Structure formats: C-alpha cells, structure tokens
Amino acid sequence: MIFADLWEDLKPYGRTDSGFRRYTWTRSDEQCRKWFIDQAELRGLAVETDRNGNLWAWWDVAQDVTQGAPRRNAVVTGSHLDSVPDGGAFDGPLGVVSALAAIDLLRDRGVTPQRPVAVTVFVEEEGARFGLACLGSRLLAGVVGPDRARELTDDAGVSYADAMAGAGLDPAGIGPDEDLLGSIDAFVELHIEQGRALAVIEPEGCAIGLAEGIWPHGRWRLDFTGMADHAGTARFADRKDPMLPFAATVLAARKAAEQRGALATFGKVIAEPGGVNGVSAAVHAWLDARAADEETLSETVSTVRSDGMRFSAEHGVTLSMRQESATPVVSFDPRLRERISAVLGAEVPVLPTGAGHDAGVLAARVPTAMLFVRNPTGVSHSPAEHADLADCEAGVRALAAVIEELACR
Ligand code: GLV
Ligand code: MN
Ligand code: MN
Prior knowledge:
alpha+beta; 13 helices; 35% helix; binds glyoxylic acid; binds manganese (II) ion
C-alpha cells in the first residue's frame, strides 16, 4: 500500500471537528493500536506488545526465524499514535505510517533485512492524559519507576493502572526491559518538523532534516489555593482570589523566559470550583518550560516560582509548585547522524528542537537519530500542523534508505 492510502486509512480514528483526540487507553487509542496491528499483520510482521504496552512490529531476518535465534542488533523506527488535545494529524502518526510505508518500499525493491527491523508505537508520548510525556519509552528505559506510573491519574481521577487494565493490559508488569533495549543497535524516529526551519532554508526550503538534539524541558504543576466567595458580594479587600496571582504568574513566566531566550507556557488551567459567579477556591495550572541549556531552564523556572510566591502572598493565597516531569538535554548520536547524512546527502540540514520525543528518552540508552519532514505552517500541536504529500513521500524514501543502510547490508 502506498503512503497516501495508509495515511487516509488511519485518519478517521479520534478525529473531531476541532482536531485529533487520541488519548492513551481510550477508545480512539484502541482503534489506532488495532489499525497498526492489522497493518503490521497484513505485512506478515510479527507484532509484539512489550510489558509497557508499546507495540513492536518485527520484520525479522528469515534465517533467525528458521533457527529460532534471539533478536540482536535490531534497527528500530517508529513514533507514537496518541495526540495532544485537539492535535494535528502528523505529530506521531507520520513516523509510524512512514515506517510501514518504508518497509513496503524496501520489500517492493526486493531488499531483505540482515538485522531485525522493528516499527514501534510508543504509549502516552504526549502525556496528554496522565501528564508524563513519553511514558512508554520512559518505562522501557527505566527513567520512570513502575509504581509512580501506575499511580498517575487523569483529570477524572482514573489511575494509569486502572486505565491500562481497562484496555486489557496488565499494569502489574510495567517497568524497564533491559533485554529488549539490549537487542537494539539503533533507533531512528521520523517526525514532522515542529517549526519552520526547513521551510525557510534558501532558496526553496528542504523536505528533510536531521535532529541535532533536544532542549532540556519539563512540566511543573502549580496549585494556587485561595478562598471561594461570592462574585457579587465579596469586597475586593476581603478576597483571597487565586486567579490573580495565577494571572500575574503567567505574565511573569513569559517575561522570565523571553529575557533568557527560553520558552515558558501555561497551556492547561483548571479553576475550582469553576463557577462563573464565584471567586475560585483554587487554580491548578501547568507550566511547560524549555531552554537551550539546563542552567537557563532552571533559572527561568526559579524566577517563575519566586514571582508566583510573591504574587500569591500579596493576595493571601498559598502556592505550591512541584515538578511533574524532567527531560534532560539530548544530543543525538553524532556517528549515527553522520552515517545517515552520508546516505541522504550532505546537504540535509541538522536542526536543534525544543520538542520532546521518545527518541530523546531512548538516546540515553541506544544510538538514536531523528529525521524531520518539512512543515510549511511551522505550527504543531494544532490542526494547522501540515506536511505536503510530496514531502511525506520524500520522508518515506529517506527512512527506507536509512533502514536499508543500517539493517539490510
Ligand atoms: C511533545 O511533543 C512535547 O514536546 O511535549
Ligand atoms: Mn507532540
Ligand atoms: Mn511527537
């Protein structure tokens, strides 16, 4: 099947009028996972679900299968199928669909693997439901403990363990998998570019780029606790309104980040109890902060924290702030990147990124690289995210060439 057909086939799942909602261990996630399993089985790939629910579709070496030999020196590619709230179509699925299409392309050309090749689908990459991004790859790599993961809850209070069990998988077994990690020689994730760097390269842009590294980043939860009161009768002087220090903190975060060339975003906020005609009892808000280096990131977040504490005290509100996730700076493997550059042509641009990826988590354990596909809007985590079909096809050809180089010679 060609890329465009595969792409259209996956599209209906989790699609709403305002974007994609493919949250981990929900119906739409189950549909996407089933779609992947069906497509992999159609291709005769051996589908396995690891102890963390990540999917692996293996294109095995024929001789290894005959001899029952364990998989070694595998070349793995893939991405994720979950989405942010009202996300675009490309972030995640492009890497998965391109991987299947790349295998088709290689097979059509009669290429066979000399080392096992796998296409993966990682669980909860966006952290949209349970708050911790790249949860499937973090569990696999032992970066997050199983107890902590099981106890994560979604906004409705459903635990990760219960949600996973509800999807028919056993949460008791989640955790690191050294054997699986040890069998991997290289991981290459293809992803839509989440910016316009490739689009603006003179004279006519570039369809494909390579990742240099990922900015360190993290998420913090801020709980501003005040006192519920009546919007029509409580005098300003008597209020303890958590919305005010929260609003001031949003502006302070923007300033703190701007001054340092960093990024700080409040993208999720919940006011409690949420009545239009009431002063809130509490405001819960989540800060996403990113910077080119750890020191700048930590300075930015410290400033947000101290400003938030000051604003809260001014309004008789208490603030507690805790980190929910941390992703250290990532530099992708330079030798693997050079090898890929040589296959793709030296003119392929190498870009840093502020976006997190499973590849970033795995980079601490296995040689890892990322391919980016041009996004003319530069927008991501939004339905405006886009890649032209011709560029997606160029991505498939590039990924096929990389798999051929790494696994089929
Ligand atoms: C994932 O896309 C992230 O960067 O948060
Ligand atoms: Mn994303
Ligand atoms: Mn992604």
